Amino acid sequence: MKLRYLAAASAAMLIAISTISTPAFAGWSGHGTAYTPHGTYNGAHYGSCTGGSCMHAGGVENPYGGIATNTGTVNRTAPGQFSNSGTATGPNGRQVQHSGDTSCAGGTCDHTGALNGSDGHSATTSGSVTRNAPGQYSSSGTVTGANGNTTSHTASTDCAGSTCNRSGTVTGSDGGTVNHSGSATRVAPGVVTTGGGTTVVHGGTVTTGTVTTVGATVAVGSVPVVVAPPPVVVAPAPVVVAPVPVVAAPAPVVVAPPPAYVPPPPVAYVPPPAPKTVYVAPPAPKVVYVAPPPPKVVYVAPPPPHVVFIAPQAHTLYVAPRPVYVAPAPHPAVLVPGHWVGRFWVPAHWA
């Protein structure tokens, strides 16, 4: 949800900045309101240029009162060569330091950049925008996070009359793709209606002078194309896909320049500041402590008692035989007459 708010807010800022013409020698300011399905976004910005260097500052308020700001500078280091740096601050106070270099030649502008968040996350970007024909542009690029995951994006824009149509594809590091398309029509000065029915109303004042367009691809003097670097959001790989609608938002601004446009001398041209996407880092994940389930009480029955058989001791019982008197068998009695046995006289007896 926050990412959608960021995308809508960034789109509002980009469109607000893009629809304001800028002089090559003074300053500009303006404000805008974007009415989106997610709510109303209010933006304001200011910029000034001197001696080949431009500074800019702007902010967007979301429907819930959160404010995102972006400040920075753009320096023209050589014909067709520009460098930029700045700081974007989200509604939650987190910041992203961004810097980059842009080189334009032969109808193509190449851009490389780096972003470093206050939460330690970082990313690098690279890409290019080419003017294929009047009103026709194509772009491509990559975003690489600190973890090495790379997301690539391609898009094309075709403008005719007061309407611009755009389409593109974003491919994640996991091979997944997201296709996007839409259109924008300029129905009145400062009023743009998108294909989805969103109406963006802008207001502001600008000093007069040589006119160029900020945040869009236009022909300027001897430099066929001046392109603001595609906005990038530093986020985990699944989230990086979200910037697609933001990149496409400036498309309505590529509407034909004012009829009174007069190309400035190449020497006097000072590039306007490139719009920066406000990066709102997601809040740090909350540490949720999940208490472990209470230990299950497992009842372990005691082992069954061992049955021990103790054999009774064998007692030896001696039963004495009862005395039995056995009378001698009767035999006839014989009278033995007395006689000497050795020196002893044995009187007569029965035997």
UniProtKB/TrEMBL annotation:
This is Large exoproteins involved in heme utilization or adhesion. Keywords: Signal. Residues 75-104, 116-191 are annotated as: Disordered. The lineage of its organism: Bacteria, Pseudomonadati, Pseudomonadota, Betaproteobacteria, Burkholderiales. Residues 75-102, 119-166 have a biased composition (Polar residues). It comes from Paraburkholderia graminis (strain ATCC 700544 / DSM 17151 / LMG 18924 / NCIMB 13744 / C4D1M). Residues 1-26 form the signal peptide. Residues 167-178 have a biased composition (Low complexity).
